[in-house]
């Protein structure tokens, strides 16, 4: 079954590359006009030459054959075929490889629109970038963290969990959550491990937190999941939420996280 699935992906990949080739004209690719063509797109020989690979190899790619193609070759193909960002992401998804240019993609700075987004949500909400910096958060979220978010020039959820003395008291079942958080972060950061900001953050956490150092060495990777999140607020007491997470359509390495109120919060607020 796995072999059949892999064959289907390669066939889809070949068809996608062939379609992209047909859309690029010689003029767009910087090739001087010559003899008349039956189709307006590039020839296989031209794409192969521009990508510095053999015509046979490129033909096998379009035919969906079982050939091993490096990420660097896919990147050259995406450039030569003038793919959009969405097309390039789809290409690398089908190839089951990380785009080597991701490491150079800048993480967006907080914007008014991001802040307006979370302010419009009537439950605790925040937006995380790939380094788990909190790009935007609302007042309800700051209350959950007992004002910690608002007191930081650049709040970072990992620094709170592993380096702030308040975290084990505020986060219910802190050790279990810390274990899970490290595995989720590893999944998020895999393609950015060579990025300078990533290595700086990881080194800081390894140096400052024996717990982070222990779980990081275990090499566990899991996807970020929703579910129960509980906090012990210094004034409001026990608070329980259901967490849901969405990826931003315009920035796939950023996430919108919302904490939906649970029954325990209502009881807690009635208790005053």
Automatic annotation (TrEMBL):
Q: Which InterPro entries match?
A: Cro/C1-type_HTH (IPR001387), Lambda_DNA-bd_dom_sf (IPR010982), MLTR_LBD (IPR041413)
Q: Does the keyword DNA-binding apply?
A: yes
Sorted alphabetically, the keyword list is: DNA-binding
Q: Where do the HTH cro/C1-type domain residues begin and end?
A: 16-88
Kindly provide the name given to this protein in its UniProt entry. Answer: DNA-binding protein
Q: Superkingdom, according to UniProt?
A: Bacteria
Any GO molecular function: DNA binding
